[in-house]
Specification:
With 283 residues, the chain is mainly β. It has four helices and 14 strands.
């Protein structure tokens, strides 16, 4: 019975691998398309990677979504800034021995006039179902981020812009459009809002707040509709390490926990301050 429930969830795309990984991102209800300021932006909006002028590696893990270890998923990403732009590589594994998805992502992003950012990601996505065989697909993600003002940003992101799929079945890999704004109400407080539209579903509204309580501790919360979801999380920052935890409550499926670790090489100050210094923004 448990396996039947899992396959029904997948078939109805209630859970078809998490498109937007990162414990910080999830604690903000995935409202961060115009923030996108860590290595997991490769999966959320690759344009934001050009804001990061330092090397960074991130690991994310969700051990048992909705209490089902068979739906465990993990992501890893590495970011390398160069004089030619930023290059990032990421990978994903999702599922269990009967149903497994894997993905390799390669991203390029760059900046224009320190106000306009753009990025694209090439994805190789494979699917294996035991006793039914396997398949793979290539698809492209694109994104942009614009600093309208020093503390006000607009971003948009398209997942699977070429509408690739597995086999001959339509929409096996979701095509979605995401756009929104991020506003620094205070230097330590950012509000994020976005709208996500899957090609086959109604739009989803997302909202999230990120507050730096003290230098080494951030608290976050958010919500989204369609379906209703409430999120919360914390971030602990020490030296070059950022440890993030998120929890969200689904209206039908209950609670889910996620954890992520980011290592920023050769930097030890606040992420927001580093980006401000890189872009020559006033504090």
């Amino acid at each position: 019975m448990k396996f039947i429930i899992i396959f029904l969830l997948i078939a109805n795309q209630i859970i078809f691998s998490q498109l937007n990984p990162g414990a910080k991102q999830i604690s903000l209800a995935n409202s961060d398309v115009a923030l996108s300021n860590d290595v997991f932006a490769i999966f959320n909006n690759p344009a934001g990677l050009a804001q990061i002028n330092w090397r960074e590696i991130g690991i994310y893990y969700s051990p048992a979504p909705f209490g089902l270890s068979e739906l465990a998923n993990g992501y890893v990403a590495y970011h390398e800034p160069t004089s030619l732009g930023s290059f990032t590589i990421g990978a994903m594994s999702y599922g269990f021995e009967l149903y497994r998805e894997s993905k390799l992502a390669l991203s390029y992003s760059n900046i224009y006039l320190k106000r306009f950012f753009y990025g694209l990601t090439f994805n190789f996505h494979s699917l294996n179902i035991k006793n039914y065989g396997n398949d793979y697909s290539f698809y492209l993600n694109v994104g942009a981020l614009i600093y309208i003002h020093n503390n006000f940003r607009f971003g948009f992101f398209v997942n699977n812009i070429n509408r690739a799929t597995f086999s001959d079945e339509k929409s096996q890999i979701p095509t979605s459009f995401d756009f929104g704004f991020s506003y620094d109400i205070l230097p330590e407080l950012a509000a994020n809002i976005s709208v996500q539209k899957d090609y086959n579903f109604k739009p989803t509204f997302n909202f999230g707040i990120d507050y730096d309580l003290v230098d080494n501790l951030s608290i976050r919360s958010g919500f989204s509709n369609n379906p209703s979801k409430y999120t919360a999380g914390i971030g602990i920052n020490y030296s070059s390490f950022s440890l993030d935890y998120a929890i969200f409550s689904h209206s039908d499926l209950g609670l889910t926990h996620q954890v992520g670790l980011i290592i920023s090489f050769n930097v030890e100050t606040n992420r927001k301050k580093l980006i401000q210094q890189f872009l020559n923004l006033p504090n």
